[in-house]
Design brief:
Blueprint: E1 2-5, E2 12-15, E3 19-21, E4 24-26, H1 32-36, E5 46-53, E6 57-63, E7 70-76, E8 78-85, E9 96-102, E10 108-111, E11 115-121, E12 125-132, E13 141-143, H2 164-167
Length: 185
């Protein structure tokens, strides 16, 4: 297992060691001991799977209070996955990083608590999996607008298909301070 740092501290790409032959392949998608060797020790309490068609954008989602860290991957298709630091007081507040996740590269992306998360489907269809460090809480559910100019996210799709919730999400500047996570060094 190889960890690749991104421009945002705590957000890392995990590249598993893949063992394959003419029969197929095998890899560990998650191993708490191997992650701990790299300083990560998440405890996951919920797993989710979503399926999206090409051009669907989901995000930018987060929970506050009761934040969720996420460990995400794609088992079919391809997505462009984004994490945005929305922790008040963080030196990287409002900055984002992105990674391509697909069935071929078998990468995983760890997004710690305090970050907003979203992805857009690049392939005809994608099956997206994620493990979460907290269970879904409707009262803590929140979102930031995907096309917030202050974030300047360089989405690879100009006119994505959105849910009503995502289309109406507020700009980061319009989110009240008590609805944003706090940076804790």
């Amino acid at each position: 297992m190889k960890l690749v740092e991104t421009g945002l501290p705590g957000c890392v790409v995990i590249e598993p060691q893949v063992f394959g032959d003419e029969r197929g392949y095998f890899y560990e998608s998650f191993n708490v001991d191997r992650l701990a060797q790299h300083g990560l020790s998440p405890t996951f309490v919920q797993g989710n799977v979503s399926s999206s068609t090409q051009g669907v954008l989901r995000g930018l989602h987060y929970q506050w209070p009761k934040p969720q860290g996420k460990y995400v991957s794609v088992i079919e298709g391809e997505v462009w996955d984004v994490a945005v630091d929305i922790r008040r007081g963080s030196p990287t507040f409002g900055q984002w990083t992105a990674v391509v996740l697909n069935a071929e590269n078998k990468r995983h992306f760890y997004i710690p608590e305090g970050f907003a998360h979203g992805f857009v489907t690049l392939s005809e269809r994608a099956v997206f999996t994620y493990l979460c460090t907290a269970t879904y809480n409707r009262d803590a559910d929140a979102a930031i607008r995907w096309d917030d100019a202050s974030l300047a996210i360089d989405w690879p799709v100009a006119a994505p298909r959105l849910s009503g919730k995502d289309a109406q999400a507020p700009l980061l500047a319009d989110v009240t301070q008590d609805r944003l996570p706090v940076y804790q060094p």
